[in-house]
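Collaboration report, partner site 2.

Our partner group contributed sequences for two proteins of shared interest, and the home lab folded both. The records are reproduced in the order in which they were received, starting with the first partner submission.
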Amino acid sequence: MVTAMTDADLITRYGGRLPRYTSYPTAPHFHEGVGAGEYAAWLAALPPDAEISLYLHVPFCDRLCLYCGCHTSVARQERPKRAYARALAREIGLVAEALGRRAPVSQVHWGGGTPTALPDGCLAGLMDIIHARFAVAADAEIAIELDPAALPPAKLAALAEIGLTRASLGVQDFDETVQKAIGRMQSFEETRAAAEGLRRLGVGSLNLDLIYGLPYQTEESVARTARLALELAPDRAAVFGYAHVPWMKKHQALLPEAALPEAPQRLRQEAAIRAVLEREGGMVPVGLDHYALPGDPMTQAVKAGALQRGFQGYTTDRAPVLIGLGASAIGTMPQGYVQNQPGIPAYEASIAQGRLPVARGLELSGEDRLRRAVIERIMCDLAVDLPAMASAFGARPEALLVGAAQLRGFLADGLVEWDGARLSITPRGRPFMRNVAALFDAYLDRPSTQPRHAHAV
């Protein structure tokens, strides 16, 4: 029997701190026992035909938004940016040498920070090196994250040189009061000019990032932002809840904390955005926080049960290898995870010494692989067949669940359905998807090397 719980009751019960599950085990459990030597061996052991995705992290912005949780900083001078670009170029070479061949690449993703913060010629020059050292597929997806307010015509034109196919524009919120509070002034006209400019370049897929849970936001204001976003004709939208972690990101302490919405308000804001995107924009919900048009490849991947989730969020990329390049970048290998030095000086020092700049990582056990597969299907499909999944890994399904008591609570509260084999998340339970995934997280209560996670809702 389903209990009559209000949203506030559910949040009180389930609103603790949880991972976003862009990996399993999650990054706080990486350790220094995995370093450059292990990474080099893992690269050398990859099958010759293994497809690879590349992620290049640019830790610079033209402005520092107060809500930001990324590894980035504001650098006014050109010299450190060019030095960083040279280090990136050398790291590309080090990885290619460890691979020992021009490995096939199916996707290149530029993230940050703001990649266009690099000086003129850097993006194109690095892309030329990638083409020289890797066999980039003719139909490879070349994606980039952009700040519309830092995209003058010259920067926009430079993007044509890297073969861009997909772009993600940071919108966050169009309300001026909210923008002032978060230190990110950005007009709708600027954003529209950026979107139209990207379309003129031939960019076929446009994503917009929206955030709820920011200071001074209301249900009405986030709905207005969502409607304005739809005027830009996006193919996809990502709707993130602001993660307030000032103990990790000191600049977040500058936000007016008293103006941050409480958890029930956050939940209603998310619902308001969702209603606009689905009912007025015709978008289809994808996983926890993404939306896409019905004909989009991401929507098709959902229907086919082929949606993936990684450190860049939801993706259609099926490559078994993600190589992270740049300071703080994380890579995913069949053998495990590696993360580069987070600080630019340490990163550049490693590169200067001819070493892969790995700071820490984690080698996957057989149990890790099974639990990773279960959690990924929950986060992507909102359902998982536990006996079938366990059988595929030669394991017993009854050993998977680490939160049996919590599962009984989820059933009573109508968040999940369970027939003894298939576990599925109900529409009511969708905002609590990470709580359901945590039922299978054997690491959650272990000590970690990093501060804990943001609130689940």
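Second partner submission, folded after the first:
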Amino acid sequence: MNMALVPLVGYLVLTLLLAMWAQRQGAKKSGGSFVEEYFIGSRSMGGFVLAMTIIASYTSASSFIGGPGVAYKLGLGWVLLAMIQVPTTFLTLGVLGKRFAMVGRRIHAVTITDFLYARYRSDVVVILCSVAVLIFFAASMIAQFIGGARVFQAVTGYPYEVGLALFGVTVVVYTAVGGFRAVAVTDALQGVVMLLASVLILFAVVRAGGGMEQCIQTLKGMDPGLISPSGPDGSIPVPMLFSFWILVGLGILGLPQTTQRCFGYRDSRSMHDAMIMGTLIIGFLLLFMHLAGVLGRAVMPGLTSGDLIIPSLILELLPPFWAGVFVAGPLAAIMSTVDTMLLLVSASIIKDLYIRYRLKNDASRLSSGKIGRMSFCCTLAVGVLVFLASFDPPDLLVWINLFAFGGLESVFLWPVVLGMYWKHANATGAVCSMVAGVVCFMVLSIFNVPLGGVHAIVPTCVFSLLAFWLGNRQGNAVHDEVTKLFWED
């Protein structure tokens, strides 16, 4: 047996056991509300778990495989772009955290769609949100499944399909069984594993390259563009740098997988602690992993697939058993993103569509046991469909992930931010913004419209904001009940 397989299998078993423990703990604390427990963990996260689950949900195959893979090809300029993501936790909790938690408790919201329905009182908004979650989360989850299988293949030497099956079964089962509490607890474990792995991988790369100074000199000898902010042959233009401040900076306020975490923390102290811890941890993690990708080119030049750089470095620089231990870092990043998205897709189907429309928003018409079985089956079915779609994988997963990011932001960004802070924002404006945003983003992305280096999300944000303003002028005034709910303490 390949010795790298032993710690990998052990790690997967550990996550399953941890999820089962979390599920039993949740059953004791749910207080009879299965929906709140399964989808939001009864709003009981402390600061450390909150910070780690936001980080783990946000970082993914893109951060541990795709991002370092692009850095391998484009150099230190891509590291600069990656660091734009550092304020993720601080920005999400600082802008949305407190108000989301307050409103969420008032309206018993467990999903971002619950919040948007309470704010706009529009069925069209709910349906558009649910469809967007299903489509763009599916694309992102496929990228994560592919990433997990590639890590397994690279480290163990077993076929891609075997890794896909082992990884897919594990993450789907523990998410379906344990719900949000299992996801949050395993995310905390995975966040710690990611951080430790990133430090050790970078240390091994620098040591193998003869030290930091020697690595930089080697890169400079290959191509001076590798140590330039603009990249080789100007491959990272200034407009792209600006675009990333929107795509992975401001735009993260439109990502349901991170904003939904604002509903689940215990108290204000937990939020403040998470803002500090999360910012520091994600900063170190992103810096170390992307630097490892760049400096890895000095150690292993000539790789044709950037996505293989991190698994290849781990195999090259570490003995098989320890390679299996440290490759748990990339695997943890992937699993922690997939479990969150699986749960949110299940919530969109069960909570936002079935309970809201089939049961007229009255979950008491079904027993907790039946809702639990439905949620389990829904999560399992979505996971199986994503698994089947993950065969015949493309290269450079970061672009798939960024496409999914942009699609979600084009739908959610302005309805969430303006709905929270603009009293006069109405349903017509929100619908116009969603439709205009997703159409603009899809057209620009699919037809690859030349924008001079600017990412499609920038004109999309401008266009959807304009559509919100124009639609808002034509819509009805906000109900007094909504104003009182959101702005009168």
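Feedback sent to the partner group on the second submission included the following. The chain is about 75% helix and 0% strand. The chain has a mean pLDDT of 81.
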